[in-house]
Amino acid sequence: MSALKANSYSKSKPRIVVQQNVRLWNRPVFKIGIIAIIGMFSVLGVNVAIMAQTSAQAYQLVSLKNEKLDLNTKADVVGSQVSSLSSNQNLVNVAHALGMVSNVNPVFLRLSDSTVIGEPKRALANERTVAKNLVPNSAMTVDTKISKSTGQNQTGVLGSNASGLAVSAAGPDSIQASPTN
Amino acid sequence: MSLLPPNEERRRFGLIRVSMVVLVTLFVGHLSYYQIIDAPNINKISSDKRSVTRVILASRGSILDRSGNVLARSVFTYDVNVAPAHVANIPQQVNGNSVTVTVDQVAQEMSIILGQTKDDILRKMAGTGLYANIAKDVDATVYSQLKALNVPWVYFDKKISRLYPNGAVAGNILGFITADGTTMAGTERKMNDCLAGVNGKETFDSGADGIRIPDSAVTTVMAKNGGNLKLTLDTNLQYFSQQVLENAVRYERADYGTAVVIEVKTGKLLVAAEAPTVDPNNPGAAKERDRQSKIFTTSYEPGSTMKSITAATAIDTGKATITSKVVAPYKLKTSFGAWIKDSEKHPTMHLTLAGILRDSSNTGIIQIGAKVDRSVRVAYMKKFGLGQATSINFPGEASGILGDTKNWDLLTDKTSMFGQGIAVTPIQMAYVYQAIANGGLRLSPKLYESCTAADGTVTKFQQGPSSQVIKASTARDTIDMLEKVVEQGHVGKTAAIAGYRVAGKSGTAQIQEGGTYGYLHAISFIGMAPAEDPKYVVAVMLYKSRRTTSSLGATPWFKQIMQQVLRTFRIPPSTTKSRNIPTEW
What we know:
Chain A has helices at about 1-10, 30-85, 90-95; strands spanning about 110, 115, 145-150, 165-170. By secondary structure, chain A is mainly alpha-helical.
């Protein structure tokens, strides 16, 4: 302890040291500060960019959800039209319009002895058979319209068919339907 | 004037220190109050302003027929509302030009889409409130058209509704639900546990523009959709049968009609048709009586279709055979002095039991039935399923009326043998013939096949208990006798189908009203085909038929439906002949 003291006393007179001319930007503290500031602004910039991107995507998400809702609505509309067109009532109306009558006198041919079973009779739409649709359906929003084609090559909405009748579907969006659906 | 003299610096600094301490204490206290004590409340107010809760609608399951055809499904519908306080002309850009769409023009456009008058819509829009309903339950098509108008003060409430694509096809069985989702009748009510879904909800923070704040906490309770219910019904046959029945009811000017088709070997109900019936899309259009399933809920006196039970009981107990002989006059005086008569006058006939069924002789059947004790006859009726609701337990199902069988009066004891004085439901009577057609094995009616949950889990429904009601040999004898009804009977012959062996029985029952029998009848025909190995039973009944008051009015419709059934299931024509049974002696 005393030695140290003695030493300190001996150096109590300041020594003159020649300082190198160190530029400000070469000082380590300055460099660290600059790096820290750049880093901070970089992080801030990235953060702002991410926030902007996220916000934009939030709006895009809402837009896509709305689009999905619209598509679901369209699917509902088309689904309802398909239901309507494929309902028993529409099919029977179309069949009747095409002149189809249920034959209540079927005849069978027994192949083993070539016997004709039953008496062939012409199918007629009379009061004892069902001549038109009698079962109500208030869900029928679209029905298949039948119109007679005027020429062999005339094509309806769906094209000509074997019977020479053109079949088209009429409705809010006029979707097409097959007469055999 | 200074508060403290300039030389008292120590006191001045002390005062400032105290003031600072008080000020800081006040700030800290207030901050603590907001940050700690009142923090939950403030958080809640803040959260309430930011957070939005939306209901995630769960859809109700579909009802399908045996082939998967959709009989009922859920669809979105919309209530159309406006905020009258915000109703104003709308500035719009059309082809780059600024135009103003007037309220009157908007109302005009809406009236065309909604099918209402413009004045009606304008009247509904009037006022200063924030809510006025313009239309309820519009479908997606109308919604799309209205939305395309792009009117800022028109808004929509989305709801889930029910669509029955085939209208009144099986409407009586499907039932219906109200606009608020309450199940009101039929299968919708009975099978609600399978069909109903559970709504979910989603809570998140949103900004002033309603857009969800990114990274905000989201609480989601997922919606659970309802399951799909599969029935045993065949939509196409059901439709055909309803067509036939509707035609029959109109032609015969009957109050109503029912038709049931059963698959004999499985007990599955393929058709449960009624006319008139209800279109579940619009139940309000049907009379209250027609909104239910009369097949299950109404009872009627069956008449002569009951004779098959009496005959089968006598044979099964060894009290008679198909060739048992009786002398059957037009009318017969009982031991207690009452007269039992046949429906039409005829000379005294010498009939076998087969002949009794062929001619539907009341005087003949009571002589055969009298050989069996009443308690035994009643026991057989119950074994055949009479006097009790079926295991389907359809909403509002009736059990029929056998009455206090131990205390039947002497007349009821006799008339019950030919189906008067007791009452049955159409479904009960059809399954009596299912048992006969199935070698005496009665199967419980089956209407519900399975429920498929939203996660794909399939639950098959167990059929009710089955029981051997009569011996197989008795069932065969009964079928053979019923075949003679169709081959030779006055009424039965009109039910014959070329190429097929058909067995069946007609019924013409008087209807009791106000304690007396009127002149109108419940006419019916129940039959099976092909008789050599019955696969299907068809039961047709017309209530209060006014054109034809005998069962002759029921056979043409039975024939049409049975023919369609045989055609649908591609049953080949019979290749054997009926058993040779004497009907007279």
